[in-house]
Write a structure and sequence with these properties.
The chain is an all-alpha fold and 468 residues long. Helix content is 75%, strand content 2%. The chain has helices spanning 26-33, 36-41, 47-60, 65-89, 93-100, 103-136, 140-155, 162-187, 191-199, 206-219, 222-231, 241-276, 288-299, 301-334, 340-362, 367-393, 396-399, 406-429, 434-455, and strands spanning 2-3, 18-19, 235-236, 336-337.
Length: 468
Amino acid sequence: MSSTPSSAPSLPEAYRSVSVPKSAPSWRRLLAFAGPGYLVSVGYMDPGNWGTDIAGGAKYGYQLLWVILASNLMAILLQTLCARLGLVTGKDLAQACRDYYKKPAAIALWLLCEVAIIACDLAEVIGSAVALNLLLGVPLLWGVLITGLDVLLLLGLMRFGFRKIEALIITLVGTIALCFALQLFYAHPDWGGVARGLVTPQLPDKEALFISLGILGATVMPHNLYLHSSIVQTRAYEKTPAGLRHALRSATADTVIALGMAFFVNAAILIVAAAAFHAKGQFEVAGLEEAHVLLKPMLGGAAATAFAIALLASGQSSTITGTLAGQIVMEGFLNFKIAPWLRRLITRALAIVPAMVLIGVSGGKNTVFLLTLSQVVLSMQLSFAIFPLLAFTSDKKRMGEFTNPLWLKLLGLLVCLLIAGLNIKLLWDTPQIGPKGVIVGALGIAVFAAWVQWGYKGKPEVAKPEEA
């Protein structure tokens, strides 16, 4: 473990390692930027999404499709802001938080982000283990261990360049999309119901709010915001105002296209669950294994096998990007560099231990509930990432001419307040927490913030300007 200067680049082993041709046609330069959006997109179609989408489709049919659409549009907005932050300032979101906030606040944000990463990893590890069980009959506990180790081998591809990681992820994303296109073909959904579900906002009951927040947490992931603001910096674009503008346009296009594919996958999961389960009176699906078993007689063996293959591709791609995000978050917030293999080992251990405990306690049952719960935890952490992101990208001192225009500031603020409000509503309605727990938690945050602002005597770590 070694200290690094505040101005050290994010993910230094890949920083500006992908060349962008200066004199090539626009479409070729655009292709040079294709990649980071797909690494981010896998977080929007990971096994946690499967749990929430299957639960929503089985219980409410097509009624919650609008939640997936709204969450995806929010995700595109927030991820675009991340790309802008990384390209314009040369810092990822974790580094920006460390430089701007006082040390206790930065450490608190780091701890919250680590909780989010553990919750996300938990979903990915469980999903991959279930897929190995469905395809090869591997026991769940052994599947968890295999999933934890194979990601270290896959990340070894970074020795051969960051583009190799991107190529692997794009291949896995394509596999997931093809598998769900096949399942949609076999499911014969009610396309009229699909259209109504996309444009008719509704929450039939409190459980629908719980599942909707799970969908939101599974779609807009905190660690993805940190990841994206870092990996856009792998492009060696021309450092001129014109080069930066082209980089921003290309990164935005990459984000919109990649997250558009993620929307298709998420919507397809819920549509298949609605057509295969809800339409046939199967309103409760407790586990991914049960979903696989039920799909076979309803849609056929090919659809069930495609389900398991897509689940494995989803889990594997998500574990790779989740581990990269863990490295970026730790190095960015704490301002020290740790050997990538050691950071990845720590990340895997933090996910494997809770996964093995939960699988051991539940006997491998009710994996959909475990996945949904993990995504709700992610949703709870989201506000602590999106408010700083909006503040940084709206700061003219940091962003210069690329600061958010007024309409984007207002839209971003609306999204942030909506996400925070929905999370407070869920906690308020949860019997184990309730109004008293919400008030106590709010008071605790207020007291901590007041101490940091007026009681703490230290100063924020301000990055020194880079030498010319």
